[in-house]
Amino acid sequence: MMINPLTGYGVSKVVDSVHPDFKKGDLVWGITTWEEYSLITSPESLRKIEHTDVPLSYYTGILGMPGMTAYGGLYEICSPKQGEYVFVSAASGAVGQLVGQFAKLLGCYVVDLLKNKFGFDEAFNYKEEPNLDAALKRYFREGIDIYFDNVGGKMLDAVLLNMKFNGRIAVCGMISQYGLDHPDGVYNLIRLLMGQIRMEGFWVTKYYHLYHKYLDMVLPNIREGKIVYVEDMVQGLESGPAAIAGLFTGRNYGKQVVEVARE
Amino acid sequence: MMINPLTGYGVSKVVDSVHPDFKKGDLVWGITTWEEYSLITSPESLRKIEHTDVPLSYYTGILGMPGMTAYGGLYEICSPKQGEYVFVSAASGAVGQLVGQFAKLLGCYVVDLLKNKFGFDEAFNYKEEPNLDAALKRYFREGIDIYFDNVGGKMLDAVLLNMKFNGRIAVCGMISQYGLDHPDGVYNLIRLLMGQIRMEGFWVTKYYHLYHKYLDMVLPNIREGKIVYVEDMVQGLESGPAAIAGLFTGRNYGKQVVEVARE
To answer: What are the Oxidoreductase N-terminal domain coordinates in residue numbering (chains A, B) (predicted)?
Structure first.
């Protein structure tokens, strides 16, 4: 979903609180505003940070909303099994890089554009491929079991031509379609029927009840170096607008983080 | 799925058998060929008919493959709850009429084009509506929870604009798209994401293990007259080609059955 640019997921320290669940000095993550000090009047989205042996910025990503997005969409919608073929589009972002790595840990074959950094099996850049269907057929000779969609539009349409029977598509985002007056047509939906394929849009909020289960899985993998988590950190609130614009042109590599202040 | 016109679901009496599960005189339903006497070499699709207090032709429909299709798609994919809004396209067929009636029995609000016959709440003919989105908004002021799709294409596209949050779409057929050189584009898939909607194509074979559970539900409803099941019966094998062609022009009203022979 589109994010209102005046709010976003951040990591903060409580400087004062009259709420019984939060006290001065607590570290929290959740929805905050783009400013140095914020008055939080509806703290429902805030969660206390319990593990501080990992970078705090991770709570804007792998240990926060994007991590839960990757986990919920992949585990709950797609139920990946060892040996299955997984395609992640826009794997350069916070969510995509995690989906691919989680799938690798589960023994899947994973393709996207970050082959070297994250140890995926194959890679291509969807913005540079004249024929997406041919590119997918090159990398998935036996077809795709799981597609984690962050792109939508023509990419989704080409993937539909390459899905295996009983395939699953988690629709996490459709960044190619945001803001278009005339969205791309998708012509291959009959493949849902031919291939008994499930396609499901989701919001991360559906899966927050699994947050502690997720931490139990992901924290050991982070500590043991089995998951590489890449951030693209810029300094200062004034860098925010350019950073958010870059998400739509593919400028970032890894989770885009704006560091407002550091202790 | 398209049906090979040389085979189809039929009801037959065994005239001879060397298979241990079938003996002379048994009534069976399953995939047979379009002829008066057939040699069945792979009887895996055949099931013995155990209840004969209902018309035998029902085993080509409500008590056979179409019944299981309606049941599997509605119950297993869509999990209807009392008070939910259900839209069934092409409700004039064998599957559609059952989906709508099952949903009514569960306390749902049901719209399609067979209002008077089957007791649905509202009705319209998708082939005569110049603006499908407006028609849906007229009948579903609060939106659609469940769409049982038999049509695909422009109908599906309009439905996407009217789905409620957490909606479910069972893709059972896309009859408007069969045989097209250039299928219709679907432009509103971003609604899957906005509305956390699940869309799933399925084959009836996925649900055959539930057949006895289904009979336990449907047989009492048939016997008590709580379900109306309409057949469009034509006589003689020679009527078959015209009958099958009529499915694509909307000529039939109710399940199209060809009576080859009667005892």
So the answer is: 5-46
Neighbours of A76 (CB within 10 A): 14
Closest CA of chain B from A104, distance in Å: 25
Residues 6 or more apart whose Cβ sits within 8 Å of residue B126? B89, B90, B113, B132, B135, B151, B155
Tell if the CB–CB gap between A196 and B183 is shorter than 8 Å: no
Distance from CA of B250 to the nearest CA of A (A): 20
Residues of B in contact with A192 (CB under 8 A): 171, 199-201
Burial of A25 from C-beta contacts in 10 A (0-12 / 13-18 / 19+) = exposed
Is there a contact between B112 and B89 (Cβ–Cβ < 8 Å)? yes
- Residue pointed to by tokens 């990503």: A61
Q: Do B165 and B41 lie in a common domain?
A: no
Question: Which residues in chain A touch residue B179, judged by CB atoms under 8 angstroms apart?
Answer: none
Range of the domain at A130: 66-205
B131-179 per-position pLDDT tens digit? 999 989 998 999 999 999 999 999 999 999 999 999 999 999 998 899 8
* Distance between first and last Cα of chain A: 32
A44 part of a folded domain = yes
A159 touches chain B (CB under 8 A): no
Record: contact B200-A202, CB cut-off 8 A: no
pTM of the predicted protein model: 0.89
CATH number of the domain that residue B18 is part of:
3.90.180.10
